[in-house]
Amino acid sequence: MSMPEAAAPSASADRSALLESLRWKKFPVLDDGFVALVDCMGEDGSVVQAARVSYGEGTRKVSDDRQLIRYLMRHAHTTPLEMAELKFVVRVPMDCWRQWIRHRTASINEYSTRYSLAIDSMQSTHDDEWRAQAANNRQGSGDFLPKSAGHKLTQSEMELQSFARRVYEERLEAGIAREQARKDLPLATYTEAYWKIDLHNLLHFLALRMDVHAQLEIRRYAETIGQQIVQPLFPLVWEAFLDYRVDAMRLTKLDKGVIQRLVAQSGQKGLPASQEHFLEAQDPSWKPLERSRERDECLQKLTTLGLVK
Ligand SMILES: Cc1cc2nc3c(=O)[nH]c(=O)nc-3n(C[C@H](O)[C@H](O)[C@H](O)COP(=O)(O)OP(=O)(O)OC[C@H]3O[C@@H](n4cnc5c(N)ncnc54)[C@H](O)[C@@H]3O)c2cc1C
Q1: pLDDT band, residue 62 (cuts 50/70/90)
Q2: How far apart are CA 33 and CA 192, in angstroms?
């Protein structure tokens, strides 16, 4: 195995300057949250360097770094991406943090409210930020409520949060242990943590949490990490990640069947197909008279592709 070439001095200086400009910079998220990069090991080149160990020198002539990274991303050859690591410090409301820590492949150290006073900050919702329950997705949000309707909700949120904080502080003044006094603090209370993760698992987190199905609050964190930190530090990986993961579309066997039937009929019925023709071509397992989430998802994909109008 030959040793990798050292980076040219100016490229290495540019990289160090970029890293230093990002380290400890607090990118605000929500009303009082943030993400900041503490440290980063690796760059696009580290991914390439690791991949070349498995592909050997021969590959070097035919594939430049960009092509190699794109190949890795397309074919889920993921371990080279584990060679880079990022460490963040984040400030996140506890309900959002509860979703965040479901990602088990990170190392975490969180602020202790047994040891220290709970952070005196709770995520607040402006008049125009209240979202209605989604009509077609039990987990999601729909439209924003009018500001006039949100005003009352924001007022009661403020009252609840200041009452909860007061009760917490009264308990502490009465000598109650911090570990017990905290029990009625709202989930909106901010927590802080160090969060270290390799690039492969970070991209997995970002793909899930930047997605429209993720809750808006955690989406804001994921977008900030992705766009403000990962993109500048790993531009080639980021580009491939968007092309082959975030902005890609997965077609199921059933979706392919629908497309094949629509294309087969296109001579008589034309494309883009009408909704009626889409229903004629749907998978037989989707019961025509019953609601099918899978059919809805297929229709959405085909509409995006311009195959159904
Ligand atoms: C939109 C959305 C809605 C969700 N809704 C719910 C919900 O209603 N209820 C709920 O409880 N959760 C919910 N989750 C959480 C979800 O089920 C996952 O727990 C979370 O997204 C972490 O994903 P992960 O396990 O792939 O990630 P990580 O924990 O980061 O793991 C990465 C990968 O490592 C592997 N891995 C890690 N640990 C193990 C293990 N112990 N065994 C085997 N393989 C492992 C898996 O391949 C995994 O994909 C939701 C997530 C999203 C994005």
Answers
A1: very low
A2: 9
